[in-house]
Design goal:
Elements lengths: L5 H14 L3 E2 L2 E2 L7 E5 L4 H9 L6 H5 L1 E5 L8 H14 L3 E5 L20 H14 L2 E5 L4 H5 L13 H6 L2 E6 L9 E8 L9 E7 L5 E5 L8 H14 L6 H8 L3 H10 L25
Length: about 290
């Protein structure tokens, strides 16, 4: 989702590859430094360089293997854009290409449509042809659906935004998520589709570290202890209050996976009054027209 730190995560991974690290956050990488082509039209070149140079992996060797294309999008759904992309790939000869984000590199394609000139399938067919011809890997950053952006307590029902062809075109897909209500909690890298890796963990926890010189990088973290239901309810409510959202008991109970009675008890202890959900006995879906669950 927007604001989740996808760019930060991708920069760290790409720089570790360019440096030639053997591992990144518990994942085995190549045994040699890789040439990386990083495309990000949503940030200025100055901002990207500042972020990259403050990364713990940004040695001289890593930076020499790292090529940035920023500010101006290369539209992968136009003949001109594809020609430009081919030329850059031919010039750089990258081992790894990072496209951040997919949506930013589309001019007229509807990401919800699969086939046709305005569908996503031709774009991914083009990218696969480039990957095979240049013998390189391609990482594409994309957004999750609205359900994934809204419900941060579970990965159930969360999917990639747009056509199912986007997921089908990839060999592997991962979801990266962090808890906005608890910045100290580790972020999560959750495999959604993994092809050819055999046994794979259901979730990898990551933490963003800074050293004494303010250089940053991601490292694998231990899984956090599961908080008691009471603490979970309190955290969800505090986050909703901070965002100015309505306090709806049934929605709190659903997100935490607890009873409505427990949610009500915690609200009482916090001195908060929940938003009215309708007449007694009505389902949680019978809100007033202006009721919007968080």
């Amino acid at each position: 989702p927007p604001g989740e730190g996808k760019t930060t995560l991708l920069q760290d991974l790409a720089l570790a590859c360019a440096k030639g690290d053997s591992f990144w956050a518990g994942f085995r990488l190549s045994e040699k430094p890789l040439k990386v082509l990083y495309l990000d039209p949503e940030n200025s070149l100055a901002i990207l360089k500042s972020s990259i140079q403050s990364n713990a992996h940004s040695t001289d060797a890593a930076l020499s293997n790292f090529r940035i294309v920023a500010e101006t999008p290369i539209y992968l759904d136009t003949p001109e854009g594809r020609g430009t992309f081919k030329s850059i790939v031919k010039e750089v000869a990258p081992d790894l290409v990072v496209i951040d984000t997919f949506r930013a590199h589309l001019l007229s394609v509807d990401e919800n449509k699969a086939i046709g000139l305005d569908g996503v399938r031709p774009v991914f067919t083009f990218l696969r042809e480039i990957a095979q011809a240049a013998n390189c890997g391609i990482i594409v950053a994309h957004h999750m659906n609205k359900g994934g952006e809204k419900d941060r307590t579970s990965d159930a029902g969360v999917g990639i935004s747009g056509s199912t062809d986007i997921r089908a075109a990839a060999d592997m897909t991962f979801m990266y998520r962090r808890d906005r209500d608890d910045e100290a909690s580790p972020s999560r890298l959750v495999p959604d589709k993994v092809r050819g890796l055999g046994i794979f963990p259901s979730c990898v926890f990551l933490t963003l570290l800074r050293d004494e010189n303010d250089f940053w990088k991601f490292e694998k973290a231990d899984a956090p202890e599961k908080a008691p239901k009471t603490a979970s309810v309190q955290k969800v409510v505090e986050g909703a209050v901070a965002r100015g959202e309505k306090i709806i008991v049934s929605e709190i109970a659903r997100r935490v996976g607890c009873s409505r009675a427990l949610a009500n008890r915690v609200l009482d202890d916090m001195g908060l009054r929940p938003h009215r959900e309708g007449r007694e006995g009505h389902s949680s879906g019978d809100w007033d027209n202006d009721d919007v669950p968080f």
